[in-house]
Amino acid sequence: MIDVEALRRDTPSCARMIHFNNAGASPMPNPVLESVTRHLAREAEIGGYAAEAEAEKQIEDFYDAFATLLNCRRTEIAYVENATRAWDMVFYAIPFRPGDRILTAPSEYASNYIAFLHMARVRGVGIDVAPVDETGQVDVKGLEAMITPVTRLIAITHVPTQGGLVNPAAAIGAVARRARVLYLLDACQSAGQMPLDVQAIGCDFLSGTGRKFLRGPRGTGFLYVRGELLADLHPPFVDMHAARWSARDEYLLRADARRFENWESHVAGRVGLARAVRYALDIGLDAISERTERLAERLRQGLAAIPGVEVCDLGARKCAIVTFRRAGEDPTQTWKRLEAAGISCSVTNTHSARLDLESRAIERLVRLSVHCFNTEEEVDRACAAVAAQ
Ligand SMILES: *Cc1c(COP(=O)(O)O)cnc(C)c1O
C-alpha cells in the first residue's frame, strides 16, 4: 500500500496545483531536491572537486541503484545527460553497413526516428516499420516476419510520449533473441512508472531520463548496455574519462558501460537521480504502476463521460499517460484552460511522433500524465475542469 499522504508531504506544491505532467517533468520530491541542493551548497563551500570526492558514496550509488531498478550489473550502467544522448551513444556505436536495416514501430519517438533517417542518409541503411495489432500495440508476429538477414537492430519505444500505450517489450525481446538481432529499448516514459527488468525484457540496450516518472532533476539520464556487448562497442565520442591515453598513439577504453560517459558532468544531478531511484524503489515499482494505472483508468472513464470528449489512448495495456481531445476546442486551448485552472499538463503533437499520430489523422492531443502521489480527487477535478465551459 502506498502512503499517498506521505508522498504529498514530500511534494509540497501538491497543495497548490495538480501535477498532471509527470510524463513531461515530474516535480522532484523533497529528498531528491535536498540531495541536489546539498551537493550544490557543498560545491560552493569547498569547491567542486572536493565536493565530488566527499560525495563518492552517493555518486557510486547511482550505479547500484540503477542495477537494482533494472536488474542488471552496476558495470552495465552509464550516466548520460539525457535520454536522447544516452540512446544516441549506443545507436551511433553500432557499426551499420550500407544495406543494413533498422526495424522499429509506428510509436517511435521523433529524435530516434530522426537518427534512423540520418543513418539512412550517411550509411545507406533501410528503415522498416512493424505493423500494429487491433489494439494499436506492436504486432509481435508481424514484427518477427519483417526480420531479414540484414536486420541489424530492433529499436522500439516502450511507452510512447503520445499516449497510454505500453508496447510488449518482453515479447519483442524474445523475438530479438531468437533472431540474434540487437535490441534497443527507449524506456524514457516507462522508467519510474512500472517495473523494468532487462533480463526479462531481453533487451541489449535501454535508455531513460531522470526528470519524468523517476522524478529526478532535469538534465540527467542513464543508459544500460548488456555487458557481453561492451567490448565490441566503440562509443561515437570518447574522452579521457571513457578511455585512458595509454601511449602516444594509443588509448584504452574503459571496460564497463562508463565508456559511454563524459569526464565532466552534472554531479549534483547524478546524486539527485540516484536518490530519485532509491525513492522509487522504496515505494515499489509494482505499487507505483498499480496505482498510476488505476488513476489513469479513472481519468479515462471520467473524460469519456464528457460529451464531445474523445480519449485517444491505444494498447492492450494502458499506463499513466492519458490523451484526449474535445470536439470544437483546439487541444492547445484545452491545455491553456487547464493550466489556468492550476492543472499542469501538456500537448503532444505530430512533431514528437509523426508515424503514429499521422496514421490516426491526429495533429495534437491534450496529455495528462498521473503519478502515484496524485489522488482520485485530483482526477475528478481535472475532469470537471475539462467539462467546464
Ligand atoms: C522524453 C522522451 C525522450 C527524450 O528524453 P530526453 O531526456 O528529453 O532526451 C525519448 N523518448 C521518449 C519516448 C520520450 O518520451
Structural summary, described in words:
The radius of gyration is 21 Å and the shape is globular. Helix 3 packs across helix 4, helix 3 runs antiparallel to helix 12 and helix 5 crosses helix 12. The protein has 389 residues and is α/β, with parallel strands linked by helices. The strands form 4 sheets. A 7-stranded mixed beta sheet has the order 2-8-7-6-5-3-4, with helices on both faces. Strands 11-12-15-14 form a 4-stranded antiparallel beta sheet. Strands 1-13 form a two-stranded parallel sheet. It is built from 16 helices and 15 strands. The structure holds pyridoxal-5'-phosphate. Pyridoxal-5'-phosphate (PLP) binds next to helix 6.
Profile the largest sheet.
7 strands, mixed
Distinct small molecules: pyridoxal-5'-phosphate
Percent of residues in β-strands: 15-25%
Compute the separation of the termini in Å.
37 Å
DSSP summary: helix tally = 16
The number of domains is 2
Named at the architecture level, the CATH assignment of the largest domain is 3-Layer(aba) Sandwich
Ranges where pLDDT stays below 50 over 5 or more residues in a row are none
State the CATH class of the largest domain.
Alpha Beta
The total count of strands amounts to: 15
Estimated structural class: alpha/beta
Radius of gyration, in Å, reads 21 Å
What shape does the CA trace take? globular
Could you state the CATH homologous superfamily of the largest domain? Type I PLP-dependent aspartate aminotransferase-like (Major domain)
Helix content: 40-55%
Strand order of the largest sheet: 2-8-7-6-5-3-4
